[in-house]
Design brief:
heterodimer, A: about 120 residues, mainly beta, seven-stranded mixed beta sheet, four-stranded antiparallel beta sheet, globular, B: about 110 residues, about 0% helix
Chain lengths: ~120, ~110
């Protein structure tokens, strides 16, 4: 049973930083690309970033480019999202999700971690 | 970026009903489209990928069709647990984008 568990969310002031983690269990983490997707309270889904299975390829949504960094440690079976220069509009539940082997679809998802950017 | 427009925004139906949800893309995404279901307080769950392929463990009452710019998700007979929000998502062009969602409510 594949399970992804996010952590690291919390309340941070505008301009601050936060690092999210996503730990896997139950599958060969190093074989799969991974994504971060977020959902503002009561709103829809917004894709944030992707990283290839080996960490060589990264891609970001324009809304976070230059502020967020996705990276992974395959030896620890963990995915990360370093978030800098946070803005109130970054407030959301952040989900990590595994890339489907056949393409950039998301399955499974973690339960999510809430990030609140507020003064 | 590819804009996905879902319709209707909200739908009220009874258990046992057949329902068809729509997703229209602003440009062709070939068959690179998925559908997700999100129940309250839960992360989304992949239902359909590449327009018509059911994900692992998804019941046969869920089916997807379409290509190019017009796609549909059909639920043949609604079960109580199907009342949720449904999103479409394209992977044809970066950035990956989602539709705004369709809320399926119990009538």
């Amino acid at each position: 049973q594949v399970q992804l568990v996010e952590s690291g969310g919390g309340v941070v002031q505008p301009g601050g930083s936060l690092r999210l983690s996503c730990a896997d269990s139950g599958f060969t983490f190093s074989n799969f690309g991974m994504h971060w997707i977020r959902q503002a309270p009561g709103k829809g889904l917004e894709w944030v970033a992707v990283i290839s299975y080996d960490g060589r390829f990264e891609y970001y949504a324009d809304s976070v480019k230059g502020r967020f960094t996705i990276f992974r440690d395959n030896s620890k079976h963990t995915l990360y999202l370093q978030m800098n220069s946070l803005r109130p509009e970054d407030t959301a539940i952040y989900y990590c999700a595994r890339k489907l082997m056949g393409g950039d679809y998301f399955d499974p998802w973690g339960q999510g971690t809430l990030v609140t950017v507020s003064s | 970026e590819v804009v996905l427009t879902q319709s209707p925004v909200t739908l009220s139906l009874s258990p046992g009903a057949r329902v068809t949800l729509s997703c229209r893309a602003s440009q062709s995404v070939d068959s690179y489209l998925a559908w997700y279901q999100q129940s309250p307080g839960q992360p989304p769950r992949l239902l359909i990928y590449d327009a018509s392929n059911r994900a692992t463990g998804i019941p046969a009452r869920f089916s997807g069709s379409g290509s190019g710019t017009d796609f549909t998700l059909t639920i043949s007979s609604l079960e109580p647990e199907d009342f949720a929000v449904y999103y479409c998502q394209q992977r044809s062009n970066w950035p990956i984008t989602f539709g705004q969602g369709t809320r399926l409510e119990i009538k």
